[in-house]
Amino acid sequence: MVVCGLACWRCRWLLPLLLGLAIIMGIIALAGRGWLESESEPYVQQASLWESCTRGEEDLNWSCESLMDYGWGRAAAATYLVGFVILVICFALAVIAFSIEILRFNFVRGIGGLLFVVAAFQIIGLVIYPVKFTEDIPLLGDNMFSWAYGFGWASTVVVIGCAFFFCCLPNWEDEVLGNIKPTYYYSSPERAPYLN
């Protein structure tokens, strides 16, 4: 029977895989136009991290304005983008760290610390955006923060989880490297008469 937990050398690629998933969700958040959308028909408003678009109820063409004209728009985009770039760097460092046979655990803990920085940057961007957007941009009809904004938060949650695991992984150093001998339990015949 093979047991493969997080602290198992055979499963060392689980954490870089999760970071890759966070990168994919971050790309969807950066490129998606669903940060804010109309909740029901007629769909008259939608916004991304970069621009806000509106249209009339019977108009087919969207009229867009850049959020980069606002200081808070640049701040939200910059903080989320800086967090994303550091996340990509952490992913590359994790792949390098887990490719080396002699794993450097201080290096792994450093990746965990960088991931906490990523989470801080992303949270700042994800909080600035809805607060300032609802203050400065006139909303038409019923709106909701939608799927792309949700992917931004999902990426951040995965990053926070990975940060904890990267920071705690050095505590499992012997298990990861396979330095622990298996424990065998033996019962003498006196203690287990039913075995006779």
Structure notes:
It is a single chain. This protein has about 200 residues and is α+β, with helices and mostly antiparallel strands. It has a domain at about 20-30 and about 70-140 and about 150-170. It contains 5 helices and 5 strands; from the N terminus they run H-E-E-E-E-H-H-E-H-H. The protein has a 5-stranded antiparallel beta sheet. A hairpin with a 6-residue loop joins strand 1 (about 35-40) and strand 2 (about 45). Helix 1 (about 15-30) packs antiparallel against helix 2, helix 2 (about 70-100) runs antiparallel to helix 3 and helix 3 (about 105-135) packs antiparallel against helix 4 (about 145-170). The protein is elongated and about 85 Å long. The model is unreliable at about 1-5 (pLDDT under 50). Keywords: Apoptosis, Cell adhesion, Cell junction, Cell membrane, Cytoplasm, Membrane, Transmembrane, Transmembrane helix. It is a multi-pass membrane protein.
Concise summary:
With 196 residues, this protein is of the alpha+beta class. The protein is 54% helix and 9% strand.
Oligomeric nature of the chains? single chain
Helix content: 40-55%
Structural class determined from secondary elements = alpha+beta
Q: What characteristic shape results from the CA principal axes?
A: elongated
Helix-strand string: HEEEEHHEHH
Return the average pLDDT rounded to an integer. 81
Strand order of the biggest β-sheet: 4-3-2-1-5
Helical stretch count? Answer: 5
What portion of residues belong to β-strands?
5-15%
Uncertain stretches of 5 or more adjacent residues: 1-7
How many β strands by DSSP? 5
Taking the sheet with the most strands, its summary is: 5 strands, antiparallel
N- and C-termini, Cα separation: 26 Å
Question: What integer value in Å does the Rg equal?
Answer: 24 Å
Keywords: Apoptosis, Cell adhesion, Cell junction, Cell membrane, Cytoplasm, Membrane, Transmembrane, Transmembrane helix
Pfam family, one: PMP22_Claudin
Membrane topology: Multi-pass membrane protein
InterPro entries: P53_induced (IPR015664), PMP22/EMP/MP20/Claudin (IPR004031)
